[in-house]
Amino acid sequence: MTNRRRRGKMADTTTRRPEEQPDADPLEVKSCGVVTTYPVYRRSTVPFSSIREIIRAYGGYCNSSGKMVGVDASYGNIAAPSCTSLAEDVRAIDGGKYALLFPSGLLCLTMACVTFCDAGSHILVPKKAYFKLHRFIQESCPRLGRSVSVYESAEDVPKMANEKTSLIFIETLSSSRLIIEDVSPIIEFAKKRGIVVLCDNSCIPTVFNPFNCGADIVMYSLTKYFGGHSDVMMGALIVNDEGIFDRLYVDHRNYGIYVSSDDCYLVQRGMKTMRVRMQQVQSTAIALASRLQAHKKISQVIYPGLPSYPHREVWEKYCRGKYGLGLVNLMFDGNYSVEEVDRALEGIDTFKIGLSWGGCRSIVIPIVSKGSLINAPQAGIDGLRVYCGLEDPEEIISSVERALSRLP
């Protein structure tokens, strides 16, 4: 009997009735006390106190203006506090109005190809974009009836766009080549043609805000700096325009896209320290880049914090001296085989070999100028991309120097 009373009381206190607060979310949970970390709300089935309540949750609800708002909160965890609170935190990073969460950053990108591109549509993708996006456009887009063109720079976009172009991808800073894109000309062209622009800003959150340049959608891989501990995968799309959000939300709902409440907790935990971590990895990256410029095995160091950065003018245009970047590209003095680079890295425990970045641990991955990593056995290795983690900076730098000294 006691348990029943408690459940009944909880239903009364956690439900906002429309006649009392027509603009409020009817499923908003009131705080039951002060906490420093948001609790995890796990759920699949959602209990309701009345049929009327579940009907309203299923279809959204009308505000005082008669507009249908809210999300389908009748089942699953899309409207669970763990998910909605994270979406709110992510939305606020660039001052966006809406945010949707996805199980991975890649799904954010591929879903945009579904939402904004009908069969027969044309998509523009930068050559330096995420390699798994390129795999999707090569293997899946033709089957879906979407044609794709790959552009090298902003100057190519007006030449390659056509009357069927409905979506343009931009990667503000390439995580593989560390090339910053001059985004304004692309966005200005797209605005005139009514083309949706999605900007992948995963490399430089808190440093550059694509909405300031007029981007329609900002995408983040929350797996990287946001999560920050290499133990969660998630992505987010942030938008300002209600019409664009509505289109995304319909497909997000209809494709059954959910994220785990536990994963949301991990990302929120990471966001509490994101700015501090980014300051630390930036400090180490600048120190590494500065010291290795004169190394005999290095022909070029690519890092935005250096005066020698080849795209410095564009960087200063958008980022105004900010860096917040833990990635450094070290180009070798020559081409080395996989076996030679493996021997150089063997036994160095300060960093691991891996594809991702943004966590606490330092990571290196080979750079292959002619093709992708899979071509390394034939094409050879031309350098290393180093992600500087949170280890002691001197230990990271000396470990890289030790590896370089082992190259023949």
From TrEMBL:
Recorded GO terms, molecular function? cystathionine gamma-lyase activity; pyridoxal phosphate binding; transferase activity
Cofactor names: pyridoxal 5'-phosphate
Q: Which UniProt keywords apply?
A: Pyridoxal phosphate, Transferase
Q: Which residues form a coiled coil?
A: none
| Name of one Pfam family that matches | Cys_Met_Meta_PP
Tell me which Gene Ontology terms the entry assigns under biological process.
cysteine biosynthetic process via cystathionine; transsulfuration
Q: In this chain, where does the modification N6-(pyridoxal phosphate)lysine occur?
A: K224
Q: Name one GO cellular component term.
A: cytoplasm
Q: Which portions of the sequence form the region Disordered?
A: 1-26
Q: Which InterPro entries match?
A: Cys/Met-Metab_PyrdxlP-dep_enz, Cys_met_metab_PP, PyrdxlP-dep_Trfase, PyrdxlP-dep_Trfase_major, PyrdxlP-dep_Trfase_small
Q: Which family does it belong to?
A: Belongs to the trans-sulfuration enzymes family.
PANTHER family, alphabetized: CYSTATHIONINE GAMMA-LYASE, TRANS-SULFURATION ENZYME FAMILY MEMBER
For this entry, the protein name equals PLP-dependent transferase
Source organism of the structure? Anaplasma marginale
Q: What is the lineage of its organism?
A: Bacteria, Pseudomonadati, Pseudomonadota, Alphaproteobacteria, Rickettsiales
